[in-house]
Amino acid sequence: MSCWMPECPALSMCRGLATFPITCLERAKDLKTRLGILLHKPELGHGIGTSSKLQLGSRRRDSSREVLEWRESFDQLLKSKSGVTAFHTFLKTEFSEENLDFWLACEDFKKTRSKTKLASKANRIFEEFVQSEAPREVNIDHETREITRKNLSGATSACFNEAQAKTRTLMEKDSYPRFLKSASYQDMTKQATSRGTSKRSHT
Known about the structure:
75% of the residues lie in helices and 0% in strands. It has helices at 9-16, 24-69, 74-79, 81-93, 97-110, 115-130, 142-151, 161-181, 183-201. The chain is elongated and about 55 Å long. Keywords: GTPase activation, Lipoprotein, Membrane, Palmitate, Phosphoprotein, Signal transduction inhibitor. GO terms for molecular function: GTPase activator activity.
């Protein structure tokens, strides 16, 4: 309780006890210091906010650069998580997303280390994407389908390599060029380019 208030018991102690360990003046200084710290906290918060904005701006520049890199090659698109997501969304409009889903399933399959899991995963992928009349059958030739079927008898991480390569080539030659010409990707490149132009005009 502040000592300058009439009802404050510390006031009589300050007046009556010369040996009082903490004087009213020292209390006031202590209070001033505490208030100073509180007053500076918003400034600290403002500094953090500015830093976050800078980081967000950096991420936006990175993503803009990434969007423009997708048109350099199909590999660049597949290396980008956001690129794969955008491409998958486009493939859905063409009802051909099973090709990318199969390719991604094969990539995940290659990372499997357990032989037991390898065999069960191989069968599941084959039944879902490769066999004739599969629920999400990919567009591969009969010969590749049969080679893949035989590979299942001794499943290894490479048993889908040929089928995956055929599907990848199909996407690269067919779907990927259409994706680059699509309205959705054109909008993304315009936004990315405008961000880059805006950045240069402010430097």
